[in-house]
Amino acid sequence: RGSGYEAWLGYPRQQFGGSTASDLEYYGALYIVEENETLQAAAQEYRRGMASMLGIAVANAAEPGGACVAIGTFQGGNERIQNVFDEQTIRAVGPEGYAIRKSRENHCIAVGASSPIGVLYGVFHLLRLAKTSTGNEAFDEVVNPANKLRMINHWDNFDGSIERGYAGHSFFYKHNRFLDNPQRLRDYARMMSSVGINAIAVNNVNVHEQETLFISPAYLPDISNIADIFRVYGIRLYLSVNFASPLQGGELGTADPLDPEVRSWWRGKAAGIYAAIPDFGGFVVKADSENRPGPFTYGRDHADGANMLAEALEPFGGLVIWRCFVYNCKQDWRDRKTDRARAAYDHFKPLDGRFHTNVILQIKNGPMDFQVREPVSPLFGALQQTNQVIEFQIAQEYTGQQRHVCYLVPQWKEVLEFNTYAKGEEDAPVKHVVDGSIWNNRYSGVAAVSNVGDDLNWTGHLLAQANLYGYGRLAWNPELSAECIAEEWARLTFGSDPAVLDTVTRILLDSWSIYESYTAPLGVGWMINPDHHYGPNVDGYEYSPWGTYHFADNRGMGVDRTVRSGTGYSAQYMGPNAERYESLEDCPDELLLFFHHVPYTHVLHSGKTVIQHIYDTHFEGAERAAELLASWQTLQGRMEEGLYLQVEERLLEQAEHAKEWRDKINTYFYRKSGIEDQQQRTIY
Ligand code: GCW
């Protein structure tokens, strides 16, 4: 306790309000008849949760009619479940869903599902309810996940490093060996399952030499051990694969996706994998992207590449998750025509309809790369005959690297709610593109880059756990509000003290806007140190080959992505979105510099000039960062000291670092523009 290791599964002691807490009589006994591993795990979660939340040792319900919590599948022979749930309810529960009902008549709270994993999800939900309840609600709900695939991508390398990892090293590997720490893996699987994650890719999408062999007999037994642990918690294991695998070790002379030998090589690999891991999820592929090999080498396109792998996995029910993060990373900065933002759409839109039914395209939420602020990728809505998942980044690569607090759920919400206009007048928000309901896709869902490592508290910054938690909750149910998720997480992590809940929730909800204000004004990105991406460096990427520019000169800044005079990117959107972004007048302030190059004196909708906006937000942002620390400090003594201290330390660092951001950005633009701050504050 106090380390953060238990995360949101620690269930701090609950204070029920008075003698009306009638649920307590049910909570003390558990009735389960099925032996299945996943159901046994559910029982274990239940006992563990109740022990810490209520301090009770849950008994096995012995008497046939006694008050209890009953858990089980509808067909599993649990008569309490059979008595509580009617046909109609049972029909409403999908393959991963569950029903919870309190039945006074049957003296129980019943958690029923059509599958064992549904029961486990239901038990986690019951624990959440118990944690947040007053002890007296009428539980009665049927809950199904909105998204089929709810995935986490690890960028862990076999040597133990994690690409863009900010919470220590991998807990899967070290020094090119598999770590023997099943307890940690089990606890990780418990955490992920508790928020509904059902797919995890365990290695980096940049697949290096050793990791290329993960699909070979040398490593499959170890991979299969991980899959065994995941399976109990309803999680399928996926591997990132190297498109050029057949070349490694000189096995074949080519990786051409249309070459029959290459195709049969992959079919052989797939068979080997499924022999070891019968429920293997499939492949995640980064191809022709940032120097990774891909079909372009052979004059083939991405549909050729993905379909070849799809064919190999198809007989086993496996999926190919093919990333759309494809762009020219060797661009000449002098070339003002090439626009990285256009790349994903330009590459993939023409391929719509050509992918096999077990291929899913994985599309980053924005057209660039997980910046603090970006528009939504125009591929959402544009691809109408292709399975797709959205990719978020829980790891805070560009959002403070888990040293700054930046609660990303509000950002994800904005993206998911964005109307693509793909159906004209009718609403077509991204959330319904990715849940598959708009185009009736066979597969659909969300994926995100993990933010965990072997740090004791998993995420480095304790408050970054809220992003991990929130991602899962949102993937399950995009209708949840950012606020409700924050509150729920805070309650599960710190307990029910209203002062704590209030302050933590407020810190989380303010944090993205604060981070944006001292780092990334008006949709401009990339003003960071190259390579490691931490800290301010306005020109760090300005003369680089990565397609990442702000074009600031003495008169103005921003990227002209209009059709009229720029790269034409704005035309990748549909209807009113295309018009809004194209128009200097209508473009929302927060994305102005993403779409337009304007003078520093350009007046925003807010009434401020661009330069004054930069000064103001940077001064305010640094102040607000300092206030985060001050409000956290009001919580001293209201929670486990270990938890308090670890957050305080990070917030101290953030407050200091925010000043560095403020001064570097303000000074840079003051020197470029020569325009004074209206308030005459100190700029260097
Ligand atoms: O955000 C960028 C990162 C790379 C990463 C790449 C990707 C795994 O800087 O480190 O590589 O995106 O998403 O493939």
Automatic annotation (TrEMBL):
List the record's Gene Ontology CC terms alphabetically.
Answer: extracellular region
Glycosyl hydrolase family 67 catalytic domain mapped to chain residues: 136-458
Top-rank lineage group of the source organism: Bacteria
Q: Which residues form the Alpha glucuronidase N-terminal domain?
A: 8-126
The Glycosyl hydrolase family 67 C-terminal domain is annotated at 459-681
InterPro entries (alphabetical): A-glucoronidase_C_sf (IPR037054), GH (IPR017853), Glyco_hydro_67_aGlcAse (IPR011395), Glyco_hydro_67_aGlcAse_N (IPR005154), Glyco_hydro_67_C (IPR011099), Glyco_hydro_67_cat (IPR011100), Hex-like_dom2 (IPR029018)
An annotated GO BP? glucuronoxylan catabolic process
Q: Name one GO molecular function term.
A: alpha-glucuronidase activity
* Pfam families per record: Glyco_hydro_67C, Glyco_hydro_67M, Glyco_hydro_67N
Q: Which residues form the active site?
A: 290 (proton donor), 369 (proton acceptor), 397 (proton acceptor)
Query: Which keywords belong to this entry?
Result: Carbohydrate metabolism, Glycosidase, Hydrolase, Polysaccharide degradation, Xylan degradation
Its EC number is 3.2.1.131
Q: Which reaction is recorded as catalysed by this protein?
A: Hydrolysis of (1->2)-alpha-D-(4-O-methyl)glucuronosyl links in the main chain of hardwood xylans
Family membership: Belongs to the glycosyl hydrolase 67 family.
Question: What binding partners and quaternary form does the record give?
Answer: Homodimer.
| Protein name listed in UniProt | Xylan alpha-1,2-glucuronidase
Q: Which organism is it from?
A: Paenibacillus albidus
Q: Gene of origin? A: aguA
